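Support reply, case 0932

Customer input (verbatim):
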Amino acid sequence: MSVRSIRPFEPVVKDAAENFHGMQVVYLCWDKHLMFYAPIAKMLPPTLTFGQLIDAEITPAYSRHPDFAKIDWSAVQWSKDGEAFTPALDKSLRENGITHKTAIHFNTPGLNGINGSGF
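Our regenerated output:
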């Protein structure tokens, strides 16, 4: 969006990475499971491993869904900011290329929500 101002204007980006004291915001979304209608925003350390992300963040956030226990984690399809990727579970978020405001989506083949409804 362009801005026209009558005097010098320095935009202030309040949600810039440097304002999070070493943490970063990461968005998580389980596709085809709209019981969770929007991505979840988490503030995470970039040193967190991807395996810890699953155990400590994704599991508590989504485990109440009846499909969650059926997830075959070896078959999960991951995307990062719209691009498919294969995370290394033992590597940090930083090493997996996950930065401030990255959106991580995961798709679970064969699981399409309650009775296939996408919910």
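We compared this against your earlier run and they match. Two observations from our side: The first strand starts at residue 24 and ends at 30. The mean pLDDT is 93. Please reopen the case if you see a mismatch on your end.
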